[in-house]
C-alpha cells in the first residue's frame, strides 16, 4: 500500500516539535547537575556556607528544569506507539530495550536522587548528601547514554538482522548495540554540549546579578565555577565533535556529503567549505570559500581517502535498490515456502539492501514492478535537504567556537578577579540563548540529516507511520501544541520568577539594599 504523505509529514512534524521542545530541558539538566556537584564538593571540603547556599539556589532552578524534562519526555515516547506503530513493530525488539532502561533510570533512579537532594540537607550527613548529588549528576548522564544508544542504532543499525519468519528486525548482539561507535561519539558530544549549556546558564544569570549589584559575592563565585567548567566543556564539545564527524563520514556518507554540500567527489583530501550558497537545482555551491584538506582530515583522518559526493552516492543507491528488490522478492518467496533454499540464499546475500527497495513503497505497492525511472526517483529521495543541513551545521560550529572564546575570556577575568566589567557582563548575559540554538541545530543535523530513513538503510520514514488519517494526526498535533505551549508558559514563568528573586529573595543570601550596579567605568 502506498503511504499517505500527509500522515507521514504530520507525524514527522509532531515528533519534531515534541523532540525539539524536550531537548530544551535535557542538556540543561545534564549541565546543572554537574555544576551542583562541583559547588557542593567545595562546600564539603571547605565548610563555607556560601557554597551550600549556591548549591541550594541553583538546585531550585535545576529542579524546575528537571520536572519539565520528565513531563515532556513521557509524551514524546508515547508517540512511538501512537504515530509510529509500524516502526515500533518492525524494530521494537532492538529499539525498545535501551528506551525502557532509560525510562526506568529517569523515573526511578533520577527521581529518587532528586528527592534525596532536595529533602536530605538536614536528614543526612554532608558527605552522604554530596554522594547523592554526585550520583544524581552521573545518573542524568547515564540516562542520556541509554537514549543515545537507542538513537545511535537508528543512525547505525548494528547488532541486528532481519528475520524473514517474523518479518521484523531482531537483536543478534546486544553487546554490539550498546558498544555502537556512533553511540559513543554521540554520547560524549551531547553531554559535553549539556555541560556547556549549564555553565552558560549559571554564567549569564550571575552576570545579570552583577549588572544590578545584587548578590555580588555569590554571583562572582558562581561565575568563577561556570567559567572554569564551561571552558573545559566547550573545548570538549569541539574536540569530541571531531569524533562525531568521523563516525558520520564512516556510517552516514550521504549526511556528510549534504552537510558539506559536496555534489561531486573531490580528490583526497577534501576541502572544508566555510561559506557558500548551495543550489539544489544546479548542484553547485555558489560563492564557496574553502579551506583545503580540512574536511578530508576531519572526515577520514587521512590525506588519501576521498569523501564521496552526493551524485556518486545517488548512483550507489540505485545499485543498492536493485539488490534490495532481489532481497524483497526472496522474502516474499520465503513467506510462502520457508524451506526454499535458493530464496534464502538470495535474501542472505542482499538482506542489507532490502531497506533500499522499501524506498519504492513511497511510490508504488510492489517494488518488484519498479521501472528505471522509479528506481532513479527512489535514489534521488536519499538526498536530504542540503541547504538546511549546510547552514545548521555551520551556525552550530560558530556557536561552539564562540563559547570557547567567551568562557576563555571569563576564565581569564576570574583568575584576575575582574568580574565587574559592564561590557563583559552584558555580553555574558545576552549569550544565554546561544547554547539552546546550538543544541537544537545539532539535533536538526543529526535527525533531519538522516532522512529519508527512520533506521539508516533499513526502514524508510514513510513506512514507519501508523495507519491513521491526516485528521486524526491533526487533532493530536493540535493537542500537543496547546499542551506544550502551556508548559512553556509555566516553565518560563517559574524560571524567571526564581531567577529574579535570586538567593536573597529566597532567603539564602542577605539582601543588599545599598548595592550599586556595575557601571561602564568599571569595564
Describe the structure.
- The chain has helices at residues 5-22, 26-46, 49-82, 85-119, 126-155, 174-178, 181-211, 216-251, 253-259, 294-300, 310-336, 341-350, 354-358, 372-380, 386-415, 422-430, 434-448, 461-464, 470-505; strands at residues 160-163, 168-171, 272-279, 284-291, 453-455, 459-460.
- By secondary structure, the protein is mostly helical.
- The chain has one domain (5-255, 387-505).
- The strands form 3 sheets. The chain has a two-stranded antiparallel ribbon. The protein has a two-stranded antiparallel sheet with strand order 3-4. Strands 5-6 form a two-stranded antiparallel ribbon.
- A hairpin with a 4-residue loop joins strand 3 (272-279) and strand 4.
- The longest helix has 36 residues, at 216-251.
- Residues 519-523 have low confidence and may be disordered.
- This is Cytochrome bd-I ubiquinol oxidase subunit 1 apoprotein.
- Keywords: Cell inner membrane, Cell membrane, Electron transport, Heme, Iron, Membrane, Metal-binding, Transmembrane, Transmembrane helix, Transport.
- Pfam families: Cyt_bd_oxida_I (PF01654).
- It is a multi-pass membrane protein.
Amino acid at each position: 500500500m502506498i503511504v499517505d504523505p500527509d500522515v507521514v509529514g504530520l507525524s514527522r512534524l509532531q515528533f519534531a516539535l515534541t523532540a525539539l521542545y524536550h531537548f530544551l530541558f535535557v542538556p540543561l539538566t545534564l549541565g546543572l547537575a554537574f555544576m551542583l556537584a562541583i559547588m557542593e564538593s567545595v562546600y564539603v571540603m571547605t565548610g563555607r556556607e556560601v557554597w551550600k547556599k549556591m548549591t541550594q539556589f541553583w538546585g531550585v532552578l535545576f529542579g524546575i528544569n528537571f520536572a519539565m524534562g520528565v513531563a515532556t519526555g513521557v509524551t514524546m515516547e508515547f508517540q512511538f506507539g501512537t504515530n509510529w506503530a509500524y516502526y515500533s513493530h518492525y524494530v521494537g525488539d532492538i529499539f525498545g530495550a535501551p528506551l525502557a532502561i532509560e525510562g526506568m533510570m529517569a523515573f526511578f533512579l533520577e527521581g529518587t536522587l532528586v528527592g534525596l537532594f532536595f529533602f536530605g540537607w538536614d536528614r543526612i550527613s554532608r558527605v552522604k548528601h554530596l554522594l547523592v548529588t554526585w550520583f544524581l549528576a552521573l545518573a542524568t548522564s547515564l540516562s542520556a547514554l541509554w537514549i543515545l544508544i537507542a538513537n545511535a542504532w537508528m543512525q547505525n543499525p548494528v547488532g541486528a538482522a532481519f528475520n524473514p519468519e517474523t518479518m521484523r528486525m531482531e537483536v543478534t548482539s546486544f553487546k554490539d548495540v550498546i558498544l555502537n561507535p556512533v553511540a559513543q561519539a554521540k554520547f560524549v558530544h551531547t553531554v559535553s554540549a549539556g555541560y556547556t549549556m549549564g555553565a552558560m546558564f549559571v554564567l549569564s544569570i550571575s552576570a545579570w546579578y552583577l549588572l544590578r549589584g545584587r548578590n555580588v559575592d555569590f554571583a562572582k563565585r558562581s561565575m568563577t565555577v561556570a567559567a572554569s567548567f564551561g571552558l573545559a566543556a566547550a573545548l570538549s564539545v569541539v574536540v569530541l565533535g571531531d569524533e562525531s564527524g568521523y563516525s558520520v563520514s564512516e556510517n552516514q556518507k550521504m549526511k556528510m556529503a549534504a552537510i558539506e554540500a559536496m555534489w561531486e567527489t573531490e580528490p583526497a583530501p577534501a576541502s572544508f567549505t566555510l561559506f557558500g550558497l548551495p543550489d539544489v537545482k544546479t548542484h553547485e555551491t555558489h560563492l564557496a570559500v574553502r579551506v583545503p584538506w580540512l574536511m578530508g582530515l576531519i572526515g577520514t583522518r587521512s590525506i588519501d581517502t576521498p569523501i564521496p559526493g552526493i551524485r556518486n552516492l545517488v548512483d550507489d543507491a540505485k545499485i543498492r535498490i536493485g539488490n534490495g528488490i532481489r532481497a524483497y522478492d526472496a522474502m516474499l518467496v520465503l513467506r510462502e515456502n520457508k524451506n526454499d533454499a535458493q530464496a534464502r540464499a538470495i535474501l542472505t546475500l542482499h538482506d542489507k539492501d532490502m531497506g533500499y527497495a522499501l524506498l519504492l513503497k513511497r511510490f508504488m505497492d510492489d517494488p518488484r514492478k519498479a521501472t528505471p525511472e522509479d528506481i532513479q526517483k527512489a535514489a534521488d529521495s536519499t538526498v536530504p535537504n542540503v541547504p538546511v543541513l549546510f547552514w545548521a551545521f555551520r551556525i552550530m560550529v560558530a556557536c561552539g567556537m564562540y563559547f570557547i572564546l567567551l568562557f576563555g575570556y571569563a576564565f581569564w577575568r576570574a583568575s584576575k578577579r575582574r568580574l565587574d566589567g559592564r561590557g563583559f557582563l552584558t555580553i555574558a548575559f545576552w549569550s544565554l540563548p546561544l547554547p539552546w540554538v546550538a543544541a537544537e541545530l545539532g539535533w536538526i543535523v543529526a535527525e533531519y540529516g538522516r532522512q529519508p530513513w527512520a533506521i539508516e538503510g533499513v526502514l524508510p520514514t514513510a513506512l514507519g507511520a501508523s495507519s491513521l488519517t491526516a485528521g486524526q494526526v491533526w487533532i493530536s498535533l493540535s493537542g500537543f501544541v496547546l499542551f506544550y505551549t502551556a508548559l512553556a508558559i509555566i516553565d518560563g514563568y517559574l524560571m524567571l520568577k526564581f531567577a529574579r528573586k535570586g538567593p536573597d529573595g529566597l532567603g539564602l543570601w542577605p539582601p543588599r539594599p545599598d548595592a550599586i550596579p556595575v557601571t561602564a567605568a568599571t569595564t
